[in-house]
Amino acid sequence: MQRFSRKSKDSMATNILELMPYRASYPILKLGYSAAANPNHDMGMNKADLFISKAEVNGGTIMKNLRPKAQGLTYPGKKPICHITILLKRKSKSSLNESKI
Question: Is the pTM of this model over 0.90?
Fold first, then answer.
């Protein structure tokens, strides 16, 4: 993901995530929409002035549970959880002027 999302436009990242066949692409896409909407709603920033400066996935805790097995036995099941962080930055005024020209 870092290959295309670092300093890329929000629309390009969303287009690529929509076409990816992976199970994790939909939650990341929803997180990207939410991350872009928060500055717009909270601080009144324009969505077009933002870009993804950093996106990282860190490992979280492991949920442990018991899964049923044959003849009344159980075996341990483990579900790994991850933490996704998306950092948005505002474009500088000089780059905004260049993109409008």
Answer: no
